[in-house]
Amino acid sequence: MQIKKMNERVSLFIDRKKELAELAENGKHVVIVGYRRMGKTHLILRHLVKSAGRKAVPVYMDMLYFASWEEFANALVEETLLAYDEVAGKDLSSLFRRFSSSVASALSSVNEIEAGFGAGGVNFLSLRLAFAEREKSEMELLKGALDFVSGFAEKNGVSVIIALDEIQNIQNFGDMERGLAIMRGEMQFTKGIRLIMSGSLPSFIHSEILEKSKPFWKQLKTMEVGPFGMDAVKEAAKATGVAEKHCEEVLALTRGIPDYVMKILMEMKKGAGASAAFEHIVMDEELFFSSIISSLSQAEHIIIRRIAMGEGYSRLEKAVGYPPTAVLNSLIRKGLVTRTAKGAYAVVDPGLEFVLKH
Q1: The whole model's pTM is what?
Q2: How confident is the model at residue 67 (pLDDT cuts 50, 70, 90)?
Q3: I want to staple 135 with a disulfide (CB 3.0 to 4.6 A). Which of 110, 130, 292, 326 is the partner?
Q4: Rounded distance, CA 233 to CA 248, Å?
Q5: How many alpha carbons lie under 13 Å from residue 84 in its C-beta half-sphere?
């Protein structure tokens, strides 16, 4: 993603000053954890825009767009070159695409490749050719891509900030654990790369990224991103021109979830009331919520609907006829249900809760 496009997406950025400061001050690899709609992507993009410069190359990658480590590895190299071209005013990405279009013939020009991209460029193109001919594995290609970025950063005297958003999508990649192990190993010892990972399934992030990484990551910071408080809602209302008297209702409807806060305020700016604005936003995403509901098992559907209605554990058990612990844990893993401070269960997304109630 170009820096200009990043900037356009965060033109109205509210709060998160503490988190931005932490990202700016801390050179460690970072894992950002929070449910959907909490503003993680905006936080990352804002940091990348502020960090971009001749010595800092920002690379944003939405992992939802990739189905394999192969796709990710190829895109990582290409996006790094595009980002470098933007901050350095060069056009190495076009040169690399020319070489990539005919790898076999390009490898006859080793000196030219090495002059432009270093030894890592020759190695990665060789790996791509060998992978296409099934002589090298997907894991070797991934390692080659990371080595390429590291070598390219060193050759050009830059730091590459790689942001991997929606990291939980690697669950759909083959050899997920091996791929993560390679990334851990590379990041532990590699200079010139800073990794920012963000995910919207906290249970997955904690179990697969953080817990399994403890023995490996020497420099790893975890950042939890939660809902807005009243001060942030007031700041957002002021920025959008909505009267402060509406903030309490907006906070109650949205539970402070930033995406909902901003969307409601933008609707209210057009003259809608808070409740009508919220309902309109939810109805606009009816297909999304319907897809979530249709993906649930019968027991999950029964349980989450009753949680939305405010029923407690004993009523849930009575509804399905057996202890619902396994079903509840499944809903928690999917990021749809959470435990409150008082130990009760609640639907995470107020929009989904609204649909379930109606």
Answers
A1: 0.86
A2: very high
A3: 130
A4: 9
A5: 25
What pLDDT, on the 0 to 100 scale, is given for residue 211? 80
Residue position matching structure tokens 């942001």: 163
What is the average per-residue pLDDT within 184-190? 76
Cite the beta strand spans of the chain per DSSP E. 29-33, 56-62, 159-165, 193-199, 220-224, 337-339, 345-347
What CA–CA distance (Å, rounded) separates 221 from 355?
36
Q: Is-contact 131 141, C-beta < 8 A?
A: yes
- How sure is the predictor about 83, in pLDDT bands with cuts at 50, 70 and 90? very high
Which of residues 118 and 35 earns the better pLDDT score?
35
Distance between CA atoms of 69 and 67, rounded to whole angstroms?
A: 7
| Overall average pLDDT of the 241-262 stretch | 95
Copy the structure tokens of residue 324: 């619902």
295-300: long-range contacts (C-beta < 8 A, 24 or more apart)?
297/327, 297/330, 299/324, 299/327, 300/327, 300/330, 300/331
**Phi and psi for 102 in degrees, rounded to 5?**
-145, 80
Which domains, ranges and CATH numbers included, belong to the chain? 3-224 (3.40.50.300), 230-284 (no CATH), 288-357 (1.10.10.10)
- Both tokens assigned to 3: 């820096």
pLDDT, tens only, 156-165: 899 999 999 9
What is the per-residue pLDDT across 305-321, written as a single tens digit (0 to 9) for each? 999 999 999 999 999 99
Return all residues near 278 (Cβ < 8 A) that are at least 6 apart.
Answer: 253, 254, 260, 264, 350, 354
Spatial CA neighbour of 155 closest among 111, 121, 189, 108: 121
Pairing of strands 159-165, 56-62: parallel
